[in-house]
Amino acid sequence: MGxxxxxxxxSNKVILYTSQSPExxxxxxxxxxxxxxxxxxxxxxxxxxxIFLEAYNWYxxxxxxxxxxxxxxxxxxxxxxxxxxxxxxxxxxxxSLEVPVEECVxxxxxxWNKILNLKYLAADEKDERIHxxxxxxxxxxxxxxxxxxxxxxxLKSKVKKSWDNLFKYHQLIKSGAMKEKNLQAGLWELKKEWxxxxxxxF
Length: 202
Description:
The chain has a domain at 13-117 and 166-200: Alpha-Beta Barrel (ADP-ribosylation fold), CATH 3.20.170. It has helices at residues 22-31, 38-45, 49-63, 109-116, 125-137, 145-148, 153-162, 170-175; strands at residues 13-20, 33-34, 77-80, 93-100, 105-108, 183-187, 190-191, 195-200. By secondary structure, the protein is an alpha+beta fold. It is globular. It is 37% helix and 19% strand.
């Protein structure tokens, strides 16, 4: 595989990396395009899929307003701008992609991890301090309980509203004005024409 390239190696494209299963590769090669179905998420995460789907469903509702979701796409593919973060799983394939910027929904990986863990995504340090004080006030030790338990409807609404901060960097990143070390990009589809390299993890 060639050396890692940064964002915007071409004026309107970005180099991204993703680890995908043989099933995805097969579908991609045969159909020239591939989409994520809900059943794949449930199969992958099994008993904890309900928690992930809470975050995924929120993302879909918001992200489709940034990049139009194709009819056949149910969930997004996750890609990274750094090859080391794409993951290397036994049996999977590491794809290097060159994707048009307008197909990408950009965000910081650390912010998405907070949402995956059903935590508050603060706008800044002051907002984070206020939220932590609130957790202490209500004696909440497991923050995800706000979303998963029925006891905190008002706090749940506030937490989910905070997730909108995930997209606050999108335009800066898209324009190339922001160079984050670890960025993710959500893609509604994978296209065979985007592939510039495939590496087996066998």
